[in-house]
Amino acid sequence: MLRSAHTKKIKETEKFYDKYFSIWTTQKTNAFYHEDTFAKAVKLWPEKGRILDIGCASGIHVPLFLGMGRNLKYEGVDISKSFLKIAKRRYPQLSFSKGNIADGDSLPKKKYDGFWCQSTLHHIPFELWDETFTNLESLCKPQSIGVISLPFGHPGVYEDDTRHVTILSEEEQRAILKKRNWKIVKSGVMDGYHSKAIWRWYIVQLP
C-alpha cells in the first residue's frame, strides 16, 4: 500500500509532463545549459562509452552528445511518452525508450559506461530512493561515472504543478551519496531556469 502511494506520485509527475510537453519543449530549448558540467563529465567517460540519458525529455541534451560527446554511444529514457515522441522525431538515428528509474523492470536490459541524469532524480519520492539508486547501479558497470543534479529549493512554476519534488539540503544530499558509496568527483551550484542558485550538480563514481 505504501509503495502504491509513492508510485501514484510518480504517475502524477508523468501526467504533468504529458500535459505540458509542448510548452516545455518550446520554452526549454537551451541544449547547452549544462555545457560546463558535460565538458567535465565527458573527460571521465570512456571515449566510446555507452551513456544513458535518464529523463531525456524531448532530447534537449542530445546536441551536447552529438558535439562534445560525439564518440559516445547515446541512449535516452524518459517517463513521458509525449516527450519521447518528439525526441524520436528529432533524432531518428538515436535510441529512446520509456522507463521509470524507480521501476527496474521498465529500464533497458543493458550495461552502461555511465549516465546523465539532470533534473530527474528529485521527481522520485524519497522513500523509493534506495530502490532507485540500486536500479542505477544495476544499469552501470562497476565504477562508472554518472551525473546528477538535485534542488535545495522548489523549482515549480505552474499553479497546477502536480509533479512530486523531493527537496534535500546539500548536507542531506551528500550524506545519501556517501551512504551509497558514491564518490563525489566534482560538484557545483547552478541556477534554475526560473530561479537563482537552487540546484547542485554532482559528478559521481559508482562503487
Structure description:
With about 210 residues, the chain is α/β, with parallel strands linked by helices. The chain has six helices and seven strands, in the order ααβαβαββαβαββ. A seven-stranded mixed beta sheet has the order 3-2-1-4-5-7-6, with helices on both faces. The longest helix is centred in the first third of the chain and has 26 residues, at about 1-25. The protein starts with a helix and ends with a strand. The mean pLDDT is about 90.
What's the short story on this structure?
By secondary structure, the chain is of the alpha/beta class.
What structural keywords apply?
single chain; 207 residues; alpha/beta; seven-stranded mixed β-sheet; 6 helices; globular
